[in-house]
Design a protein that fits this description.
288 residues, binds adenine, binds ligand LTSJ6FE6, Triphosphoribosyl-dephospho-CoA protein, mainly alpha, single chain
């Protein structure tokens, strides 16, 4: 069932970490996003086998989108080295969104990722320039310290994005709140879940599945709210909590359980896109 393939650039060693460059940071970002979309089972989401709860995109749409974003992550990381303002980062992010939409014929594959990983690549660049350790914790902290207030202030009342509609309807914070606070869900939920499962299983794919469910159990995922309202979000969180309580990826029948959940999410048209995005964030931070 595993379709994920680990790219060589993800096994960066300590010697190359000392010379982390915007180009390497960019490759790590693309590698993390590739691992996310290639991972299965992942309830409701696009994977190499099927399109989950989506009718307008498939695995090849995501691969095209990633190809279009190859130049973006090194570029924003290079920009980060000059500790820019959030407005300067936004120009770079909006331009990348245009390239993504061109490559996918207008379909939103990586909007959240352009935002989240764009900020983290810029923060990694800033961390290098400011002599930081470039650890997961140091880089995510930089996002909050350098751009947190500007990210919060950038939310426009009249915005008609799905995230903004959900915020008005349900009061949920979503991607902006998570990023402005330095990705607390990734740091305190996703990363520990990934590391613990990896230590126990020695299998990066199983660790990524465990991390995904840990995130979905806790996150206020605006994609779930957009498609299913509170009943949809509650259903997804309960499903993830039950999966974890039954042992998660350490249970002998975990693949059947996760596959059955995939079918249930598809029948309800639910897609945990925010949790998928944060899985990409965790995989990127871990690869640093
Ligand atoms: C700053 C923005 C990201 C603004 O976000 P906003 O809050 O206005 O909402 P959206 O534009 O709708 O996008 C937010 C995306 O963030 C992801 N997300 C959701 N919840 C969370 C969370 N709790 N934590 C982190 N991230 C989260 C999510 O991305 C995924 O979903 C995408 C599919 O979404 P969508 O098309 O809405 O849903 P569908 O169900 O497919 O639609 P239908 O089929 O029903 O029509 C998928 O791509 C994932 O990525 C949210 O979508 C931003 O918009 C912005 O300002 N962009 C400009 C670039 C920029 O300035 N960047 C800053 C510099 S780096
Ligand atoms: N694999 C995936 N399927 C659907 N939406 C997503 N958003 C981010 N990753 C996704």
């Amino acid at each position: 069932m595993f379709a994920e393939s680990i790219k060589p650039e993800q096994s960066i060693d300590h010697a190359s970490r000392a010379t982390l460059t915007p180009e390497k940071i960019g490759r790590l970002a693309i590698g993390a996003l590739y691992r996310e979309v290639a991972l299965a089972p992942k309830p409701g989401l696009v994977n190499p086998v099927d399109s989950g709860s989506h009718t307008d995109m498939d695995f090849s749409t995501f691969v095209r989108s990633l190809q279009a974003l190859r130049g973006y992550f090194p570029a924003i990381s290079r920009l980060g080295m000059q500790t820019p303002t959030y407005a300067q980062l936004q120009c770079c992010g909006v331009d990348a969104e245009q390239r993504m939409l061109q490559a996918t014929n207008g379909i939103n594959t990586h909007r959240g990722a352009i935002f989240n990983l764009g900020l983290l690549c810029a923060a990694a660049g800033a961390d290098i320039a400011l002599g930081g350790s470039c650890s997961a914790e140091s880089v995510s902290r930089r996002v909050a310290d350098l751009w947190g207030p500007a990210i919060v202030a950038s939310a426009k009342p009249g915005n008609d994005s799905h995230g903004a509609v959900v915020q008005r309807r349900y009061g949920s914070g979503g991607a902006r709140t998570e990023a402005a606070a330095g990705f607390p869900s990734a740091i305190s939920i996703g990363l520990p879940a990934y590391r613990a499962a990896l230590a126990q299983t020695h299998c990066p794919q199983q660790a990524a599945v465990q991390c995904f469910f840990a995130l979905m159990a806790e996150l206020e995922d605006t994609n779930l709210l957009w498609r299913g309202g509170h009943p949809g979000l509650d259903f997804a969180r309960k499903a993830a909590t039950t999966f974890l309580a039954r042992g998660g990826v350490h249970a002998p029948d975990w693949q059947n359980h996760a596959q059955a959940l995939h079918a249930k999410f598809v029948s309800r048209r639910l897609s945990p896109g925010g949790s998928a995005d944060l899985l990409g964030v965790v995989l990127f931070l871990e690869s640093l």
